[in-house]
Design a protein that fits this description.
The structure holds two protein chains of two kinds.
Chain A (H helix, E strand, L loop, with lengths): L3 E3 L2 E5 L4 E6 L6 E7 L6 E7 L4 E3 L4 E5 L4 E6 L8 E8 L9 E2 L3 E6 L1
Parallel strand pairs in A: 2-11
Antiparallel strand pairs in A: 1-3, 3-8, 4-5, 4-9, 5-6, 7-8, 9-10, 9-11
Chain B lengths: L4 E3 L2 E4 L5 E6 L6 E8 L3 E9 L2 E5 L6 E5 L5 E5 L8 E8 L11 E2 L3 E5 L1
Parallel strand pairs in B: 2-11
Antiparallel strand pairs in B: 1-3, 3-8, 4-5, 4-9, 5-6, 7-8, 9-10, 9-11
The chains are: A mainly beta, B mainly beta.
Chain lengths: ~110, ~120
């Protein structure tokens, strides 16, 4: 089942902060975050594992609430380059391991 | 280190034809996943291969198939193309599928398939 992302769109001015949420109805092993610019491939930002480990870009932070099966991506002091569509991909355990189910995306626009 | 490469980048086919797309993963990566991206359905998982074995499959008809070679390169095939198969097909590679390891996937630029 597809995770639900919120909000669907965000408009910021440079320097402002934003939070993008991802919620799943299924138990998760990991959550992956990607950013995709128009006409380009998704770029890996962050992976958060069940158990608290995470790995990703230094300027990006995220959280993973295992009990609620929710993850949030925190974008602070936004830059013009942050504009794009953000996707969360969720990965279950067991036979679902290795299969990412993506949310519908959150469109982030940063203005000067 | 070279990224994931996909060929061809663009493809135009007509209904009923078949198509084969190719993906070369990052050197050392053994897992290759395929996704279909459309404006209406978003990013949808097709299948994943690891060490030449299909480990996971999404909810796509049997017209969509794939394989992986011993050098980890992968191909996907779509037979009897339909208009609705027009999409961006992305492949992604990852280093390892060991449980409890990081399994981040790195995407290639995609193949834009247009079915007329």
């Amino acid at each position: 089942q597809q995770p639900v992302q919120s909000p669907q769109a965000v408009i910021l001015r440079e320097g402002e902060d934003a939070v993008i949420n991802c919620s799943s109805s299924k138990a998760l092993y990991s959550v992956h975050w990607y950013r995709q610019k128009h006409g380009e491939a998704p770029v890996f930002l962050m992976i958060l594992l069940k158990g608290g480990e995470q790995k990703g870009h230094e300027k990006i932070s995220a959280s993973f609430n295992e009990k609620k099966q929710q993850s949030s991506l925190y974008l602070t002091a936004s830059q013009l380059s942050y504009s794009g569509t953000y996707f969360c991909g969720t990965e279950g355990g067991g036979t679902s391991y290795g299969k990412l189910t993506f949310g519908q995306g959150t469109i982030l626009t940063v203005h000067p | 280190k070279a990224g994931v490469t996909q060929t061809p980048r663009y493809l135009i086919k007509t209904r009923g034809q078949q198509v084969t797309l190719s993906c070369s993963p990052i050197s050392g990566h053994r897992s290759v996943s395929w996704y279909q991206q459309t404006p209406g359905q978003g990013l949808q998982f097709l299948f994943e291969y690891f060490s030449e074995t299909q480990r996971n499959k999404g909810n796509f008809p049997g017209r969509f198939s794939g394989r992986q070679f011993s050098n980890s390169r992968s191909e996907m095939n779509v037979s009897t193309l339909e208009l609705g198969d027009s999409a961006l097909y992305l492949c992604a590679s990852s280093l390892d599928r060991s449980f409890l390891s990081y399994n981040e996937q790195f995407f290639g630029p995609g193949t834009r398939l247009t079915v007329l």
